[in-house]
Amino acid sequence: xxxxxxxxxxxxxxxxxxxxxxxxxxxxxxxxxxxxxxxxxxxxxxxxxxxxxxxxxxxxxxxxxxxxxxxxxxxxxxxxxxxxxxxxxxxxxxxxxxxxxxxxxxxxxxxxxxxxxxxxxxxxxxxxxxxxxxxxxxxxxxxxxxxxxxxxxxxxxxxxxxxxxxxxxxxxxxxxxxxxxxxxxxxxxxxxxxxx
Length: 196
Prior knowledge:
Layout: H1 2-9, E1 30-32, E2 35-40, E3 44-48, E4 54-58, E5 78-79, H2 82-100, E6 109-115, E7 123-125, E8 140-141, E9 146-152, H3 157-171, E10 182-183, E11 186-187, H4 189-195
Parallel strand pairs: 5-7
Antiparallel strand pairs: 1-2, 2-3, 3-4, 6-9, 7-8, 10-11
Helix pairs in contact: 2-3
């Protein structure tokens, strides 16, 4: 587990630690019941348990998934940033698939959970990239407060990120192919990096 602490402390991210990933310049992984907790409230948190179970949580607020979307808030549902959602999802699987899965024997199941996305003020996601003029895609409201879907881990960060996004986009009644950072059956690291 010492090696994992080092990986969590010095993550190999697509962009710097201030971007949308699980790294922190200010926090170090804290030991927790044989595992590690890397918390950055109220934005995100990552828990790696001693048995290899990993839980990543990202808030659907202006501090994280809704970053830079406040200007589109009209008092109704809050918009989720396509870029932020895609980047943090890919970064999660880059970390887990590359550094945690190899430490644990057996097969893995990944799960995506979204809670309270229809509770006031609700959350919306739109087709295409984040809003720019001209606006593209009508924001779609989340359809469930208790979204929970799983799949057999593929072990490829870009493929597992695609599967996670496929389930999240379905929560909003959208097909993941409307995400501009998706290429066939994977999230494209190159497309994300080109957006910088």
